[in-house]
């Protein structure tokens, strides 16, 4: 059994799939009986989505032109 | 220029030209306003190392690795002074607990999700740009570009433990900066949006 502190400390790694099998089982066992840590996990999942949703920039036409020019001038 | 060199140049040009929008978009999130310089550098280095590319299918990931190094170089050149970060304090910070303690939306029954809902894509970008490149780059590549930590370690030629440690610190810094940004820009005020 692990404490809330230990479980929360591994939540992102757990969501990223980089914890080993034994640690994964311990985190899951903890989450199955701790409502507060389930709230933290839901928050961590939403935080990941927020991070993934950062703005994706279109390339401005003048920048594209200059970069293509660089490719033209490669020697 | 001999025939094979001309052929090589044409082939690289076709391959890199198709990748420009994607490379620029990544660079913009990694180094902000220095994105064009980073992509220029990436194109020059990519052409110099073109003979190291194993197959056309791996070109996007190969160019991304070169771009990341260019972004590191460009970021270093434009950095005025290194940021001093108290990681002991950052490590103790929990955005989840901070929101619960400060209770910025007293009438909300989904306080934590409402907090995150205040951040539009431009806000998230602004928060990311407040992080030092050393921590911002792995966050962008893993959580936005879908790289696996293991793959990133291989591409950056860094030990997996180093990449995982930077990701961990990057996430903690991101949480802390989300709170600071919300406080400084008035996102937490009622009716701010």
Automatic annotation (TrEMBL), chain A:
UniProt entry keywords in alphabetical sequence: Transcription, Transcription regulation
Lineage: superkingdom: Bacteria
Residues of the Putative zinc-finger domain: 4-37
Pfam families: zf-HC2
Keyword Transcription regulation listed: yes
Name of the molecule in the record: Putative zinc finger protein
The species this protein was found in: Kribbella caucasensis
UniProtKB/TrEMBL annotation, chain B:
SUPFAM superfamilies attached to this UniProt entry: Sigma2 domain of RNA polymerase sigma factors, Sigma3 and sigma4 domains of RNA polymerase sigma factors
Superkingdom assignment: Bacteria
Native source species: Kribbella caucasensis
MF terms in GO: DNA binding; sigma factor activity
Name the record gives this protein: RNA polymerase sigma-70 factor (ECF subfamily)
Organism classification: Bacteria, Bacillati, Actinomycetota, Actinomycetes, Propionibacteriales
Biological process according to GO: DNA-templated transcription initiation
Signal peptide stretch: none
Every RNA polymerase sigma-70 region domain range: 18-80
UniProt cross-references to Pfam families, sorted A to Z: Sigma70_r2, Sigma70_r4_2
Family: Belongs to the sigma-70 factor family. ECF subfamily.
Keywords: DNA-binding, Sigma factor, Transcription, Transcription regulation
RNA polymerase sigma factor 70 region 4 type domain span: 123-172
